[in-house]
Structures are given as structure tokens and as C-alpha cells.
Amino acid sequence: MDVNRSRLWRSSINNSSSKKFKRRQYLVNPGFQLRFMLYLSIAVSIGLAILYLSNYFYFDVLSSEGRELGLDPSHPYYEFIQDQRRLLNRTYLIVSVAVFIGLMIFGLFLSHRVAGPIYRIESYLKQVTKGEVHLRPVTLRKGDFFPELADIVNDTIDHMSNEENKPEPE
Amino acid sequence: MFLLVFLSSSAAYADDEILSIKFSKKNQTKTALTWIQFKPQLVFAPELSKREKRENDATRAQSILSSHEVPMALIHNTKPYSHVGKLFFTKEDGKVAHCSAAFAGTDSLVVTAAHCVMSLIGDWNSDFLFIRSYGSKQQELYAVQCIALLSIWGESRGDDILNYDYAFLKTTRVSKAGGLDITTATPPEELTIIGYSDDYNAGRTMLELDFAISVRERQISSIDNPLGKGSSGSPWIDANDSKMFSVTSHYINSKKSVMWGPKMTTKTLRLIEYTNNGCESL
């Protein structure tokens, strides 16, 4: 009976791998994922700030070129520069917000792909420790990071089950 | 046949007698960008060694003109020098050129030769920029809002047009130094010409020369004038009261030492009013 259980368990791996797991909860490991997104947002903010400063520097150079030429402060040239600066800032703000939101969503998905498998294996192993070894084998979604972990866990459980079910030498 | 030589280095609105052109803010910005690129302080007349035919004349002029430099201390604040400067522009073919010019008529009008703003075939030059006290450390730059000249210049042919070789440019701000008074009176026997010559220090130095003049019906001539190219638009002034009688226009090739300028008339005064009103009729 116990020997068959191992076989059944294996076959259930094949059956269950065809099923698609859809994890609806994207924040499965808030500690890791939020830290990951925080780091990402800091990196994105630094990048955007550098770009903004470059723009500021560029327009500042244009203004100083006008001053160097001797243009009066009321000259339309400075108005033109201000208009361009305003236009670029507005565009820049919109694009920055869009990029920031986009990258945060991307960061959430990416961290979910990392945290998801770990969460899945972690909860599976907790069930194993409770003695529920007859559970279906652990499977990960396509595209999850560390897919080899599931194989290793399944092989380990399989191996342990086989060891348990070996007939005692008489 | 005489060959006339002009001395510049190089959507109009029609009134009955006046042609004018206005520059929008966009155009003024384009002009500023042009001069940021070319930098007027780097626009010099060609070095003497690079000249071919004119080298001997230029060398001779150089030695004559050296004693006519306006002292630096006078250029910025002392009348009439403080009214004079250099007008930079680009021609139809995109080449950078320059003339002499001066604030005259009002404190926001610059007078120069008509051929400095419009070619003989009626093409407007562009990217006008006037630099008062050019060559001094305190030189001041003035953008141009509109230009007007008598339509005879742009529309007629023949020698008559030389009587109208002057134009007024309305600047976007007023000159701190004010402007020369223009008079239609008969000039005295001697006048002072203040301007720049390509033949001296590559056109970087303001010069002042006194000349005996000869008056004709519509033009005045200055005799033994070595200023040459770059002096177009230089004001002809009575040294006693700083009143302006003419601007340098041209010389005749067979007699280079005699330079001609148009007499100012009542038409000139009307042109001043028109230009000062933003190139619109009153």
C-alpha cells in the first residue's frame, strides 16, 4: 500500500504539472518584495534625477550663451528657453510618473516571480513537516524563477518516501 | 560707365513710399541662436595677408587710419561715439556680414545704409544684431524689431536709388546713450565720420575722421576718405552739435577716395516716424 503511494504520488506530479497555478496574491512575501521595490524605486529616482539635472544644466548653458552674447534679459530668446524648459519639464514629469508606476508594477511582478516559488516551497515543506506527505508534489508556474527548486524538493520527498517504504529485512 | 561699390562687408509690408519688415519673437529667437553660433566678436574682416587685390590699398589705409582711433575711454559714454556701433547680419546666401550704424532719430532707432539691410535686387538680409560701442568692453547688444527703408531703394533701378541708401531699424529696447539728431539742413564744409573699417584692425576698432565735403542736390561726398569696406552706414556728423547729415553709402570705382552719402530729406523724417511707430503708419 505504501509502495503504491509513491507511484501515485509520481503520477500526480505529471498530472498536476499540466494544471496552471494562478496566484492571485501578488504580495506573497511583503518583507522581501517591498524592500525589492524600494530599492528599485530608489534606483529609478536617482536615474530620473540625473536626467532632470542634465536637462537643467542644458537649459542653463543655453541661458548663459545668451547672456554671454549680451542679450537683454527681456529678449524673446529667454522666453523661448523658459517655454522649452516648461514643456520639457511637463513632458518629463508625465513620463517620469508613467515610468515610475510602470517600473513599480514590473518590480512587483518580478519580485513575485522570485518570492512566489519560495513561498510555495516554504508552505509545502510546512505541510510535509506536519506529516501530509501524500500531498500533491510541489509545482511552480511557468516563468517562475528557480524552477529547479521544485524538482529538488520533489526528488527529496520522493526519495524519503521510498526510504520509508522499503521493506524491513527479516 | 561707372562701377559703384558698396561698402558693406559682404514678407515685407508696403506703404506707398516705405518698405518694411517686422521680426516676430520667433524670428528674434532664431537671430539670437544664429549669433550664439557665429559669435559677433569672432566676425572679423579677413586678415590683410589673405587679401589679394586690395592688399596694397588696405596696408596704406591701415597706416593712415592708425591715427584716427577713437580712444576706448570715450566709446561707451561720450557722445557722439556712444551712439555708434556695428550692425551684424546674414545675407541671402547665408554669409555673415557687417556694417557700421548708429542710434539716430530716437533712442530706439538705428540708422545704417539701405544696402546693408536689403540688396539691390530687393532681397532682405536677415539676423540683424546691432552692437553699440562695438570693440569696447562695455559694448551693448540690441535686437531688432523691425526695419524700414524708402521703397525706391528696393523697387527702382538706376543711380537715383543711391539718394535713398539709408534705412532705419527699430530696436527692441532703448539705448541708454540716446540717439543722434538727424537734420535735413545744408551741411557745413567739414563733417566727421565715425565708424569701422575692415582695413583697420579687421574692423574691430572705432575710427573718427574729419572730411571736407562737397554737397550735391541729393548726395554729399567726402573727399580723401580711406575708410573703405565696413564703413557703410557710418554717420556723418557735425562735430560741433553732433547733428547727423548722412551715412556712408558707396564710392565709385574710378575714384575710390571719394565716398558718397545720401542727403536726409523730409522723406527721411517720415521714415523715422514710421519706423519709430513699430514700422506702422501713424
Round the mean pLDDT of chain A to the nearest integer and report it. 82
- Total E-strand runs of chain B: 17
How many independent structural domains of chain B? 2
Whole-angstrom Rg of chain B: 17 Å
Q: Report helical residue fraction of chain B.
A: 10-25%
Which two chains touch over the largest interface?
A: A-B, 12 and 18 residues
Would you kindly provide a written description of the structure presented here, covering whatever features stand out?
The complex is a heterodimer of chains A (170) and B (282). In chain A, 76% of the residues lie in helices and 0% in strands. Chain A has 170 residues and is an all-alpha fold. Chain A has one domain (28-160). In chain A, helix 1 (2-18) packs antiparallel against helix 4 (147-165) and helix 2 runs antiparallel to helix 3. Residues 1-19 of chain A have low confidence and may be disordered. Chain B is globular, with a radius of gyration of 17 Å. Chain B has 2 domains: 4-44 and 83-179 and 266-276, Thrombin, subunit H (Beta Barrel), CATH 2.40.10.10; 181-262, Trypsin-like serine proteases (Thrombin, subunit H). Chain B has helices at 25-38, 55-65, 72-75, 151-155, 266-276, and strands at residues 4-6, 13-14, 18-22, 84-90, 96-103, 109-112, 126-132, 140-150, 167-171, 181-182, 190-196, 206-215, 219-222, 235-237, 243-247, 250-252, 255-262. Chain B is built from 5 helices and 17 strands. Chain B has 282 residues and is α+β, with helices and mostly antiparallel strands. Mean pLDDT of chain B is 86; it is low at 9-14. In chain B, the strands form 2 sheets. A 9-stranded mixed beta sheet of chain B has the order 1-16-17-13-12-11-14-15-10, with no helix packed on it. The chains are: A mainly alpha (170), B alpha+beta (282). Chain A binds chain B through residues 65-66, 69-72, 74-77, 79-80, and chain B through 25-26, 28-29, 32-33, 35-36, 39-40, 131, 139-143, 172-173.
